[in-house]
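#structure-requests
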Amino acid sequence: MANRQWSGVHPQAIVDPSARLADNVTVGPWSYIGPDVEIGEGTEIMSHVVVKGPTVIGRDNRIFQFSSIGEECQDKKYAGEPTTLVIGDHNTIRENCTVHRGTVQDRGETTIGSHNLLMAYVHVAHDCRVGDHAILANCATLAGHVTVGDHAILGGGAMVHQFCHIGAHSMAAGGSIILKDIPAYVMASGQSASPHGINVEGLRRRGFTSEILLALKRAYKVIYRQGLTTEQAIDELEQTWADTPEIRPLIDSLKGSHRGIIR
């Protein structure tokens, strides 16, 4: 990896000498890349972007103007510890996004996976974990310690309470206020958010078969239509669909819930 001395860094950008940039990284004018930052091949940093470390950014990402990446968090317990931010590959982070590093009270790291789209004004707070192929629409906000599963979608202005889990392939409507966990595959909306069935259209676009969609609809009824506790629903799901791997993420999201699921 190289540092600032190559043509991809605009003359009006500021890159700390200790930052490690791959040879084909581009940095636009008036952007600042601080110490303890590593940026992988093909990543494009537009103008007016601030990246602070310790931060590791993978390859082929695009980070748009006025975003703040790797800043220290807003948690009042934070006391300047060298926590980290790790971003994977092929992400698009649009204008005015803010992504903060972790805290030592958690695992010390905020993580964003690969192939995600963070639209304008998205906020990802300390110690969050965003999986792969997720979409966070304009002004979606994650409080600290939030987990967002693969292929999850948060609509514009959605707000997620700290420690909540957003299950894989789930979808929350714009303006939702999410105070509890959303199980995998489930659609949610409202203030506070409540369940509204299985994300059928999204799953169909991702290649889920009609048979699996029918099984997921039946599993949803077990959770939400039979008056069962979460523990009772888990038992029934495991007995009925023990050999159906596509149901496993739903069961795991129920078993892993600490805040309780939306109702």
